[in-house]
Amino acid sequence: MSDTRRRLIASVLLRRTGQGLGVALAVSVLCFLVVRQLPGDAAYRIAAGRYGDDLVNAESAAAVRAELGLDRSAWQQLGDWLLDLVQLDFGRSLVSSRPVLAEVGYYLLGTLQLTAAALGIAIVLGGTIGVVAARRPGGVLDRLTTAWVALVRALPPFLLGLLLILLLSVHFGLLPAVGHGNSSSLVLPALTLAVGISGLIARVTRDTVIDVTNSEQVQFARTKGLGERVVLVRHVLRNTGVVLVPYLGAQAVILIEGVVVVESLFAWQGLGHALVHAVFWRDVPVLQAAALALARLVVAINTVVDFAVLGLDPRPRRKGVLA
Amino acid sequence: MGRFTRTGVAMGLATALAASAACSGGERTERSDSNTLRIAGPFEVHSLEPAASDGFFTRLQVVETLVSSDMRGELTPGLATSWSDAKGMRSWTFELPEDAEFHDGTPVTPDAVAASLEAAADEAASPLADAPVRRIVPVDSGVRFDLSAPYPTLPAVLTHYSTAALAPASYDDGHVTEVIGSGPYEIDRVELPASIEVSRFDEWRGDQPAIEKISFQAVGRAESRALMAVSFQADVVFGLEPAGRERVAATNGVAMESSLQPRTLLLKVNADHPVLGDVRVRQALSLALDRAGMADAVLREKELAATQLLPPSLRTWHEDGLEPLEHDPDAARDLLAEAGWKPDESGTLRKDGTPLRLTLTTYPDRPELPALATAIQASLREIGVEIEVDVTNSSEIPARHQDGSLELGLFARHFALVADPLVTVAETFAPQGEDWGVMNWRDGEVTKAVDGLLHSPSDDEAQEYRTRIVETAQQELPLIPVAWYRMNAAVSDRVANFELDPLERTWRVADVSWAEQ
Amino acid sequence: MRTARRSEPSDVNTALVRPDAIAETSGRWSASRVLAASVLVVIAAFGIIGPLMLPDPATQDLSRFLEPPTWAEPLGRDDYGRSVIARLAHATRLSLVLAALCVGTALVLGTAAGIASAWFGGWVDAALRGLSEVLVALPALLVVLLFAALAADGSLWTLYIGLALVQWVEYFRVVRARSGLVLGSPAVEAASLLRLGPVHVLRRHLWPELRPLVTTLASLGMVTCILAVSTLGFIKVGLKPPRAELGLMVTEGFPFYDSAPWMSVAPVLVLFLLTACFLGLRRTEVTT
């Protein structure tokens, strides 16, 4: 490994670590302030979350207040929470009394499953469409692709989800409409997210494939007499990857945002679902941990993408070798 | 990414199609051959703690309460085989069966049951915390409650899900970490907050239930639940909204079941409020409500329009002879005019220049509440009363009751949280006020009648007391009834003997069986 | 929320990552842009004039719930007997006004910060960059959700602030990158040698370069905002019934999709046309 590479890797790590720390602090304080600012009495809210509307009353709220120390000052509560956070102690959910780490871990897994499945489907779908369109720029398929890209771009994910439910679940009875846990209930939410971003992936794939195919490098390879397939795999694929991977990173980030809606629509247990509930029930520890997990996920994906680009792009390496 | 060739493209598409086909194929077989009774409902399972569990483990018959109730709402033996009182209802003894076993194989001992009950009595949210319990003593063949005051409704309180008996191994450091009950079904898997799976408990002391496995799934959106019902992804689906019910009605193979619940959708009124303190204003508000129209439009059933506070499902408390609440906007305007409220040029009622403007607090947990709130708003605007609707968290109603800022609160009051409605009615009309009952309203006659009922009167006396309470409430309107409540479920044809419990205590899954094919 | 908000990850060349956002060629109005603009004008007119002429969108007539379309009520009535067309007009106005406000605020703030960052460099640049790094890593929907939750009374202020807050970063990053190039160009150096002053540089050199970028971002930003507000309406955060909002109307209409399709088709169509036309407003994309 050359010095240049090492320096590059170090700079990526430094930058992302800084970002991660900044995000953690910002999220914690923001969540805390927001929950503080929410109107209404937190003890009553939490009691309602725990016991339901039939049993929440002055007595159960008073018991909650005493148990959770809600009469401490705001600064004291924030300080205690940050102190616990440094020791990696996230505490217990105020509503379910279960350890926050276990609870958020469970939701994180749900979100990751959904995101990974969606990204997989999107790559297959968008990549395929893009490559097909790139074969004859300006042809019928290419125009259809442009229309598809515009169509899915203009549809919000919840509408797409509703349409897919109506089509696949109600009319054809192929897939379960909602649910969580088994593989078949993953398909519809993943497909909803995937269709949403497949348009942009198709677009980028198409443009880069065309660019790369027309590039001097590839033209030269052709004149060298390399077969069409070898050219495609060795040159086009690799160079397309350099452009696509960071793009996929950006898409994964957008996906993670999209999951909130899709999770709510399909009753899929993930971080978005946890967030909405925690805001509603004033479950500060879960809210903070879920928000942290989401933000950290974004930073983590960006880091992975940075490294993937370093690995895929031959240019820095060549420079390093030459130096 | 696949190879960028024609074959590659074809393969990619084929894989995607095959994957989705495989999944759907799997689901199909599961749908027809499943030996699992699949239940879906709107509420999530928040916790394993009995008081915070919303009764899911009692409904799935995993845990048992000492006392149970039948389809008429009468008390029946639960985990306890019998009970008796002594010392003028200051001491109650509940006998436990000899052969009962928890799901972990340990016997149901008086010590274990007493420990669970102690935990419930310490939980402020449990109705048992309101009973004058001095101590709970394990005795030879059961448990004894020593009370500091006579308490005739103790057996009814012990039907509440927060008082269920758990095995000692369920607890760890004061928290319930595992639900080990003594009912006909045992837990296979709990995935908070959305799913519970249970299977038949082979050592159950009673008759073996017909259904082997049951799963419950929480699904928040009503339209999603309706889809599950009509596409047979669940066998029993609770809590459908009107549009979903219509779709179920139009689908073959699934039917709607429903039962009138002991719940009333009502307006809580701050009787100390400068405007609402005048009984004529309360009566006028009641007269202005087009209850039949609201029930028809919001609940899609005219018959649910309330004619009095307590619904017909509470047979002893519902007075058939009572003058029903009417819709008469003109009479309402007259009453308000009598109380000094005159319309200005825009139609808004004013008294000494101040407009008649009130805030109505409600919450979205039950979707019909915000809908009814907007309907009430429209009804009252017709007589010149301006209502501002505040849709917020359910806890705001008790919170605003406590700080006195509540004006009108719209909610669904369950009058049989425990099997005897008297417990809830007594609380509702407590002279000092109650979070989910009257606010700054007291009436000597009603207080006396409630006291009389709590001291085990004769049947005739009891009837007289009840009539007095119900009639005063109808006249004074400290709580303005709006509509009654119907619980519904879409039930698939492959399920037989499914019955909705009138008290929402249990789903009676042990009595359900598969329909003959 | 699906708009590619980040020109990130890594500093890989923004233009390549987002060809559709930054692509920029001729300023000629193609037929499709004219079409998109005209449709937008029609929808905007409906959103501005409609609420003035149509009845109150919150007025219920419970006896007429789910009435099908008639000449008097071209879009029928919803499950409370409210006029769907009146609600649609109010919802359209809300979406357009809120989106325009957010985009305007984000544009001004982001562009100013981006130019300042490139112009002054040093600690100004470092501070703004640090701030944008943190904001970029925060999922936009998370921030908007938290802000929207604050508006328990259904007020729109917090929603506006939240949306503007997550959007300005995009302008900042693009403007900062482009301004850096422009300010380092020989033309600007010559201008500063001639002491033509900062106003001249801004007007003659920076703005012509930035304008196409910023307008492209703005039309995308409108789409993001409209989608974000409808998404929040759909998950019932921030906006409260009976306020009419496109996403909320879709949610309310969906259960009746087969018995009263007029309830959901109308808001879906307006939502789709709005986003499609704002996308169509962008200039010609990368040509091959």
From TrEMBL, chain A:
<feature type="domain" description="ABC transmembrane type-1">
    <location>
        <begin position="108"/>
        <end position="305"/>
    </location>
</feature>
<keyword id="KW-0813">Transport</keyword>
<feature type="transmembrane region" description="Helical">
    <location>
        <begin position="286"/>
        <end position="309"/>
    </location>
</feature>
<dbReference type="Pfam" id="PF00528">
    <property type="entry name" value="BPD_transp_1"/>
</dbReference>
<dbReference type="InterPro" id="IPR000515">
    <property type="entry name" value="MetI-like"/>
</dbReference>
<keyword id="KW-0472">Membrane</keyword>
<feature type="transmembrane region" description="Helical">
    <location>
        <begin position="186"/>
        <end position="205"/>
    </location>
</feature>
<feature type="transmembrane region" description="Helical">
    <location>
        <begin position="21"/>
        <end position="38"/>
    </location>
</feature>
<comment type="similarity">
    <text>Belongs to the binding-protein-dependent transport system permease family.</text>
</comment>
<keyword id="KW-1133">Transmembrane helix</keyword>
<keyword id="KW-0812">Transmembrane</keyword>
<protein>
    <submittedName>
        <fullName>ABC transporter permease</fullName>
    </submittedName>
</protein>
<keyword id="KW-1003">Cell membrane</keyword>
<feature type="transmembrane region" description="Helical">
    <location>
        <begin position="244"/>
        <end position="266"/>
    </location>
</feature>
<dbReference type="InterPro" id="IPR035906">
    <property type="entry name" value="MetI-like_sf"/>
</dbReference>
TrEMBL record, chain B:
<feature type="domain" description="Solute-binding protein family 5">
    <location>
        <begin position="74"/>
        <end position="413"/>
    </location>
</feature>
<dbReference type="InterPro" id="IPR039424">
    <property type="entry name" value="SBP_5"/>
</dbReference>
<keyword id="KW-0732">Signal</keyword>
<dbReference type="InterPro" id="IPR000914">
    <property type="entry name" value="SBP_5_dom"/>
</dbReference>
<dbReference type="Pfam" id="PF00496">
    <property type="entry name" value="SBP_bac_5"/>
</dbReference>
<feature type="signal peptide">
    <location>
        <begin position="1"/>
        <end position="21"/>
    </location>
</feature>
<dbReference type="InterPro" id="IPR030678">
    <property type="entry name" value="Peptide/Ni-bd"/>
</dbReference>
<protein>
    <submittedName>
        <fullName>ABC transporter substrate-binding protein</fullName>
    </submittedName>
</protein>
TrEMBL record, chain C:
<protein>
    <submittedName>
        <fullName>ABC transporter permease</fullName>
    </submittedName>
</protein>
<dbReference type="Pfam" id="PF00528">
    <property type="entry name" value="BPD_transp_1"/>
</dbReference>
<dbReference type="InterPro" id="IPR000515">
    <property type="entry name" value="MetI-like"/>
</dbReference>
<keyword id="KW-1133">Transmembrane helix</keyword>
<keyword id="KW-0813">Transport</keyword>
<feature type="transmembrane region" description="Helical">
    <location>
        <begin position="259"/>
        <end position="281"/>
    </location>
</feature>
<feature type="transmembrane region" description="Helical">
    <location>
        <begin position="213"/>
        <end position="239"/>
    </location>
</feature>
<feature type="domain" description="ABC transmembrane type-1">
    <location>
        <begin position="92"/>
        <end position="282"/>
    </location>
</feature>
<keyword id="KW-0472">Membrane</keyword>
<dbReference type="InterPro" id="IPR035906">
    <property type="entry name" value="MetI-like_sf"/>
</dbReference>
<keyword id="KW-0812">Transmembrane</keyword>
<keyword id="KW-1003">Cell membrane</keyword>
<comment type="similarity">
    <text>Belongs to the binding-protein-dependent transport system permease family.</text>
</comment>
<feature type="transmembrane region" description="Helical">
    <location>
        <begin position="96"/>
        <end position="122"/>
    </location>
</feature>
<feature type="transmembrane region" description="Helical">
    <location>
        <begin position="134"/>
        <end position="151"/>
    </location>
</feature>
